[in-house]
Amino acid sequence: MFDFGPFFDNFHEILEGFWATIRLAAASAVLSLIIGTLLASFRVSPVPVLRSFGTGYVNIVRNTPLTLLLLLCAQGLNDTLHLTFSESSSTTYYWWAVLGLSGYTGAFVCETLRSGINTVPLGQAEAARSIGLTFSQSLRMIILPQAFRSVIAPMGSILIAMIKNTTVAAAASYAEVALISKTLLDKPSFASGAIPLFIGVAIGFMILTLPTGFFFGWLAKRMAVAR
Amino acid sequence: MTDSEGGPDLTKGTGPEDAITQAAATGTGPLVVVEHVHKHFGELHVLKDINLTVDRGEVVVVIGPSGGGKSTLCRSINRLEPVDGGRILVDGKELPKEGKELARLRADVGMVFQSFNLFAHKTILENVTLGPMKVRKQGKQESEKHAMELLERVGIANQAGKYPAQLSGGQQQRAAIARSLAMRPKVMLFDEPTSALDPEMVNEVLDVMTGLAREGMTMIVVTHEMGFARRAAQKVVFMADGQIVEENTPDEFFTNARTDRAKDFLSKILTH
Ligand SMILES: Nc1ncnc2c1ncn2[C@@H]1O[C@H](COP(=O)(O)OP(=O)(O)O)[C@@H](O)[C@H]1O
Ligand SMILES: [Mg+2]
User: Fold this and answer.
1) Which terminal Cβ of chain A has fewer Cβ within 10 Å, N or C?
2) Are B106 and B95 in contact (CB under 8 A)?
3) Which cell locations does it reside in (chain B) (predicted)?
4) Whole-model pTM?
5) Domain boundaries, position A170
6) Residue A68 belongs to a domain with what CATH number?
């Protein structure tokens, strides 16, 4: 039952799966922060259309299962409507997975950031306006920097959840570690190596997520704004 | 009630430093004109037909019971609150309704708040240079030089590298004054600048304000500090229930108010 043989025989393939997971997670981390920041800016903006868009987006996306969103991207938009990013289908599926995962995670980033915006005293926004900064300047220079600093720790949790959510990208036909594991498990020759595989993949994820958590905890302390 | 002791002495004429803050009072006619201004918050009629004229270099003290609309009036003058009726002219121009143009013109009206409202994630120096650099598009070196001169003037140049939370209330408020002055405003509004301060810090802020007044800065000051009003103001405006009930000289107002409403109010703050 604890036969590590098959695990190490296919070690190279598993590592490649992890590499695919890391590439997906890294791109999605950047993109979901951008999407989340934009959405949060929309939600606090003085323009009603933008506010409604932000609210609508968050409420729809946050309440849709991620698997469904990824299926929509890969099978709906890509396979059926033929919206593609590149000639190579694996590249296209990669970007659809990034887009689906970031679009989903962005909604959570937005809501977390919004709670951070609420910690910035209203008076500072008024002071910013009174010295002549425009709304977008005061958002960029005064409000968001402080909002980010106050939500670094929960942002870490979102990032960890997102890293684990990469395993759902199998639904978007993206060959990350979960999909590769499943393919391996389907091989009769691999049967005895199932539990080592689970243990190995779990440890692999912890190698990604534990430092992320520690790093964000450290950063939150370092960057705290004294009031 | 308040006489200056300790703190920076800014009450003397200081020669070339006048140029640091001197209002660009080059035009003619009154600097601030408030005409038939009305403001509602829902059903609540907060400003009822307010008329007020502030001349260039004039210091007006606004006094009155809490909830009377003093803050709302200040906030309307630099359009942090839009008004529902009437108009407000600063240096002959009405502030535009929204957008970049409003932001730029709003910087002509400096505002100092009760709760300082310094940017908590920026140093004192950065607080003061932000506006000049981002709104006036001034260079960094020039902005920092001017900022240090202003911090010197308000007596906290040695705190320039610290963050707001590291300063006392009085120091924070002086930094906030410097931040407003850095925009070279035509008029300065002060909304109860000393009410959030411990008593021993009130004078250091009032002294800075008195110095500004002596240099000819046009100021509208909401305060109950009678010493300051008598020392620095040419006019006292008594506001209650959204109306200007009395306009008078400081000496007349505090010794011999014309209206019963004002007398009643004064008797209450004087017995304390
Ligand atoms: N943003 C607001 N929304 C609703 N009511 C307000 C708001 N700001 C002030 N008010 C009300 O307007 C009245 C005048 O307030 P304010 O101008 O702050 O008075 P003062 O500064 O003289 O104490 C008060 O009754 C206050 O409750
Ligand atoms: Mg008030």
Assistant:
1) N
2) yes
3) Cell membrane
4) 0.87
5) 21-175
6) 1.10.3720.10
